[in-house]
Amino acid sequence: MSESTPNNLPATRINPALVLATVCLCQVMVVLDASVVNVALPSIDSALGFSAGTLSWVVNAYTLAFGGLLLLGGRIADFIGHRRAMLWGLGLFGLASFLGGLAQDPGQLIAARAGQGVAAALLAPVSLTVIMVTFPEGPTRRKAIGIWAMVAAMGSALGVLLGGVLTDLLDWRWVLFVNVPIVAVTAPLAVRAIHETRQLASRRLDITGAVLATLSTTALVYAMIRAGDDGWTDAGTITVVVLAAAGAAVFVFWEHRVAAAPLVRLGIFATRTVWVANTIVVFIGAATIAGFYFASLFLQNILDYSPLQAGVAFLPFCFGIVVGAMASGKVAARIGYRATISIGLVAGAIGMFAFSRLDADSTFTSGFLLPSILASVGIGLCMVANTTMGTSGAAHEEAGLVSGLLNTSRQLGGSIALAALTTLAVSATQRSDAANPLHAVVAGYQHAFTATSALVLIAAIVALVFIPARAATTDETGNEVAAPGARQIGAR
Question: Among 43, 223, 381, 456, fewest CB within 10 Å belongs to which?
């Protein structure tokens, strides 16, 4: 497929470097804030005096608002315009971060974190959407999405590193204040670089669908958070899961049978690459978000690392993500999306399984380094190829929808897995017959890492079975190519 200039975006007016810098700054801020506060939680608790059981809501408030509103955020961006949506999101993120840094009691901080989550739900889908509607299909868009996906994949590791540095060297409040200068740099770039784009043919927003989608996804994320605290058999957890399922069923009926201008055109899932990419990213999000959480706990609770040391320990993971992401485009052009994604996922599964071999006597070099490299290179390789495949060919009016779906899938996968694997780890620790309590805790972590390996392996099987042998891969000139020896298979 040859490159062409996107509709209403004259090539002479586009500054690709500025556009890419802007969307990547938005994305790195969103992903960082999902993990940057984790290592600061003890300091936050000491400073603000959280009551028992409420400290987790410093993380949960962000996750709940972010995961619940992602799908709506992507559609709002299509409706009001992408530059306007980005500026609104940046403004709210900066304000919430500033107020959170000034918080004097737990309620103020939790409210600020929820505000960050709302802003993130607008910024995450619009950052990918801008790439899709600005860069022409072909190698230019593929490279841009590759960089964006690399930032998304390594953001959690960077968050742990940055959180450790800021907490140890400055103060916990800087894990929130740090977003203010990022916003101050990004907002002027957005004004200059991002062209206002929206689908002018439709000025209606499916309010009922938006409410149903928001309520059902928010209920599901809350159910996962509650399950992590109270268990899967808790009556409240079961009730919220049932409500989430009922809301989802009503949403599907409304979108398919009633809505004149549906929030989600369900027919989009008839495209094989769309539903396969979303399925894969559910498992990737589940494995990586939960994996980062348990790896951080292992470093601090078992190896007795300080927050700063734990953050530095994730540097090889960041480096591996970059290596995998940079190789992804060329590898996909040579052997196709199916082989590239499958190879990356298998490498990631091996790396995650290697984490499960860690024990109380492990060291960074003997036990942590090699799994980090294997998992990160594999995840970087598959994340970029999967994102590119899932967004290829999306119509301009549905760019926000596709972006929102991919981000929602990742966030929901992570929320579900973190709750489930936390329960699994606690249960394994309680069942352990180890005389040393530390060894019992390690047993819990080992079970969790084994589960993350299984999740990545399931994603690899999905890729091998369902990705078309030829899925619109392009070479360096932008022409479509097939993997060597692959036969043509339809995309639907």
Answer: 43
The number of domains in the chain is: 1
In a domain, 240, yes or no: no
Q: Map tokens 């399950």 to a residue.
A: 227
Answer yes or no: are the C-beta atoms of 452 and 417 closer than 8 Å.
Answer: yes
Per-residue pLDDT of the chain (492 residues; tens, 9 = 90+): 444 444 444 444 668 788 888 888 888 888 888 778 877 777 887 888 776 556 667 877 887 788 777 777 777 777 778 888 889 999 999 999 999 999 888 889 989 998 998 898 888 888 877 887 777 766 777 778 778 777 776 776 777 778 878 888 888 899 899 899 999 999 998 888 887 665 544 556 677 877 887 788 778 777 877 776 677 788 888 898 899 899 889 988 887 777 777 767 777 777 787 888 889 989 988 888 788 778 877 887 888 887 778 778 888 888 888 888 888 878 888 888 889 999 999 999 999 999 988 888 888 888 888 888 999 899 888 888 888 887 776 666 666 667 777 777 887 787 778 778 877 888 888 888 777 888 888 888 889 999 999 999 999 999 999 887 765 554 444 444 444 434 333 344
In a domain, 449, yes or no: yes
Residues of the domain holding 450: 14-196+263-481
Residue pair 154/321 in contact (Cβ under 8 Å)? The answer is yes
**Kindly report the CA angle at 417 between 361 and 349, in degrees rounded to 5?**
60
CATH code of residue 124: 1.20.1250.20
Residues in the chain: 492
Locate tokens 């392009």: which residue? Answer: 474
The Cα–Cα gap between 384 and 191 comes to 27
Cα Dmax for the chain = 70
